[in-house]
Amino acid sequence: MRFVYIALIVLITGLVLVFALQNVEAVTVRFLTVSLTLPRAVLLIGVYLLGMLTGGLVVGFVKSLVQGARLQQPGAQSGG
User: Fold this and answer.
1) What is the pLDDT of residues 49-73, one digit of tens each?
2) Burial level of 4, CB count in 10 A (0-12/13-18/19+)?
3) For the chain, what is the domain count?
4) N or C: which end of the chain has fewer CB within 10 A?
5) Residue 4 Cα distances to 1, 8, 63, 71, angstroms
């Protein structure tokens, strides 16, 4: 199984390297009054990382909702 993990890491790293080498032209991003010029690969990797962060936050929020709903089930009420 370790060989499979190493092969996947090498494959993904190679794909990212090829992607970065093919997307070196600069793009300008504007948001409100801020303007930023950076390579397209850096922009796309940043957007990907923001997506990962957002997805992780959504998963954590849904998990907390599910756990809260389980605690509020009739069989799980605390006697007081």
Assistant:
1) 888 889 888 888 888 888 877 777 7
2) exposed
3) 1
4) C
5) 5, 6, 30, 40
